[in-house]
Every structure is written in C-alpha cells, then in structure tokens.
Amino acid sequence: MILFLAARPVTARPVTARPAAAPPVRPRRRVRRGRGRVRALAAPYRRIFAVPGTRAFTVANLLARLPMGMLSVSAVLMIAGSRGSYALAGAVVATGLAATALVGPWTARLVDRYGQARIAVPATALAALGSLSLLLCVRYDAPAWTLFASYAATATTPNTGGMSRARWAHLFRDDPAARHTANSFEQAADELCFMLGPVLATLLCTALFPEAGTAVAAALLLAGVLLFAAQRSTEPPVAPKTAVRPRSPLRLPGLPPLLVTFLSTGAIFGSLEVVTIAFADDHGVRGVAGGMLALQAAGSCAAGLLYGLLRPAGAAGRRFLGCLAAMAVLMLLPLAAAATGSLPTLAVALLLAGMVTAPTMVTGMGLVQSRTPAAQLNEGMTLAVTALLAGIAAGSAVGGWAVDHLAGPGPAYVVPAVAAALALVVSLPSNAGRFVAER
Questions:
Q1: For the domain that residue 231 is a member of, what is the CATH number?
Q2: How many CB atoms are closer than 10 A to CB 188?
C-alpha cells in the first residue's frame, strides 16, 4: 500500500478564488462562551437527573412538599384572623408540630420496614383529614380545644423530603460527589417550597377567604404523595428482616448532639415566621408577610444551589460549625432592621439572613446520613426533621408570646437571634475538638 501511494503522481489542487473571510462576530462568541460556562456549572445537576426516573419522582415530590411551606402560615393567618390572637395561633401550630415530632419517627420506621408507597399514602390521607377538620372548626367557630386536636391530627404527614433524599442515597450509594449535589438540590427544593408556600398561602387567605390556604395545601399534599408513590422504579428496597432488632438511631454515636442542634435551628425558623407575620400586620400590610418570608427562602435557595456546585473540603463537623457561626451573626440583621421600622430594610435583612440556611442544612443532613445505617436512613433523617419541627413548634410558641408581651413585634426578633446563638453553643462540644470520619 505504501509503494502504491508513493507511485501515484502528485498533482496540485486547482486554485479557486476564495471569498474574503468575514470578520468574526464577537457577540455570538460571547454568547456561546456564556452558554458553555452555564452548561459547565450545571453539569453536576444534569448528571444526577440523567438517571431514569429521577425527574418524575422529583416533580411529584415538589408538589407534595409545597404544602410544607403553606400549612403553618395558613393556620396562623386563619386562626389569628378569626380569633384575634397570635398567641393562640402560635400555640395551635406548636401543638401540631410537637405531635408530628412524636409521630414522625414511627411513620418513618414503618416506611423503612414496609416501603414508601405502602405507608406514605394512608398516612397522608389521615393528615389531610386533620387539615380538613381544622378548617371546619375555624369556619364554624368551634371551641379552641378542637383547633389543637385537629392540627395534632396532621402529625401523620410523612417526611416527603426525607423519602426523596433516601432515593438519591440509594441511587448514588457509591458516589459521594453525586450525593452531595443531590442533597444540595433537595435543600434548595425545600427552600423553594418555603419561598413559594408562604406567598401562595398569604394570597389565598387574603384574596379569597381565610380557609383557602389550608384547603389548597391539603389537596396538593395528597395529590403529590399519590404521584410520588406511583414512581416505583426509584423506590429504595425494603430492608430485610433480621432476628436481631437494630438499635434506635437515637443511640448511635454522634447523632443525639446533632439532633439538639437541629432543635435549636428549628426554633429560628418557627419564631422568625410568626414574628414576621405579626410585624407586617402591625404595619397594616399583612399580605406582604408571605413575600417577606419568601425573600428569606430565596436567599437560602440560591445559596443551596451554588453550594451544590462546590466540592466540600475539610471535616464536615468543622464546616457545620462554620455555617452555624455565620447563621448566628446574620440572624442579628432582622433584629437591627426591625428597630428601624422599615419594611424594605427588614426584607433585605431577611434575604441576607437566609443565605446561610441551606449550606447549614445540607451539611447537617450530610452528617445525619453518614452516621445512620442505610437500612434506617428514613428514620434517621426523620429524626432530624422531627428535631427541626420540635424547634419550630417551640419557636412559634415563644415568638407568639414575645409578640403579645414585648413592646411590639420588632423586639420579638430577639427570639430567632437567641435561638441561632444557642444552636452554635450546643454544637461546640461535639464538633469543636473532634470530628467524626464521614463515609
């Protein structure tokens, strides 16, 4: 072949006139470069959603998770509007969240034992009936104790975010980088729901009728869980039964101190929600409260998505401490902004304060996953959410009390500031001197 090619005559190609080269279009190059950078930044998220079935269960779970940002705000607006007491509204919400803190781990244990689809659907149906009962009791001016009983009946609501995280953990059990990206997305999704939920709840309760927010939230919850449970291809397998009963995650090393920190962190969210609604109401613009809470969630959502693009470096315990310290500092901003009496200033402060929420929760949930066996993952994450809910319940009650007994809702912002400082203090003994090796 080489001899044959060498024997071929070499002829020059005919010279043809070439058109003058057009000057490069720089704007188009810049657009392409910009698109390339965006695609490169989004590559970790495109990678996790390339797995079949992930988009379907994510959309369904977002629909089921949206009511989580609606229910408490709807209850506060509905009860405070009809009974004229933020203390009563905060106490009712606190009772329901405390009941969820007790019932939630048992529901999660059943999910681990029998599967997500078999447990989540009937549990959600019971919770929807509780919301309907609360709506009717408020509508027809039932005694106050019926409000507490009805909202406590919503305690069977399954941890939809935990079930979604469990699916990601199963799909990427051998890929820590993908799990980090998935956990960051899930936290951003939580914040998105808590950003849109209060706005939607406030709009429904003020534009339509006070019970509209609770009614729509219950319907969305039931529909979303039904669609999520139907996605069976990505559902984690049920843990095989063993003769030896596994010990409770509460007895696992390193987990109880972490749950105490989540408890204090939840108090930040619960008190911030009630105090912000009361602050807007005190200024005669109750309908703006949902938007102000949405700004805090917006800051957290953006920070969560950006955090998912980064590769975590260093010990997770040290990063968790750093996030908590930043949260303790930034939670002083709403207190300072409220002292000025300016709603726009407070809105900016809430936006900035929310930017550390998602990185804190992503890192904390990563610690929970690393310290919990795979067969008890739903239960472990639900315990973390339970601690958050218990903290939210306490924060709602204390925040409502502070609004009614302090000199207006402005000084009541001291409650989330103190809760943030407490979260940092309680985390120091378990994370400052030694760090648990994460897998």
A1: 1.20.1250.20
A2: 25
Domain assignment present for 179: yes
Tally the C-alpha atoms within 13 A of residue 219's C-alpha that lie toward its C-beta: 8
Which residue has 């609606």 as its token pair? 70
How big is the chain, counted in residues? 439
DSSP 8-state secondary structure symbol assigned to residue 439: -
- Range of 391's domain? 52-235+249-431
Rounded CA-CA distance 119/364 in Å is 26
Domain count, the chain: 1
Decide: residue 279, CB within 10 A, 0-12 exposed, 13-18 middle, 19+ buried: buried
One-letter identity of residue 401:
W
Distance of CA 417 to the CA centre of its chain: 20
Of 65, 63, 118, which Cα lies nearest the Cα of 229?
118
User: Which position has the token pair 């200033």?
Assistant: 345
Residue 135, token pair as written in the block: 């709506």
* pLDDT tens profile 122-160: 999 999 998 898 888 888 888 888 888 888 888 888 888
pLDDT of residue 40 exceeding 70: no
Enter the tokens of residue 419: 């809760």
pLDDT of 47 strictly over 60: yes
Residue 439 lies in a domain: no
Burial of residue 91 (CB within 10 Å: 0-12, 13-18, 19+) is buried
Q: Which residue in the block uniquely carries the two structure tokens 């979604």?
A: 164
Q: 163 lies in a domain?
A: yes
Measured at the alpha carbon of residue 227, what is the angle toward residues 381 and 136, in degrees to the nearest 5?
Answer: 85
In a 10 Å sphere around its CB, with 0-12 CB exposed, 13-18 middle and 19+ buried, how is residue 71 labelled?
buried
Single pTM value for the model: 0.66
| Closest of 46, 57, 48, 111 to residue 233, by C-alpha | 57
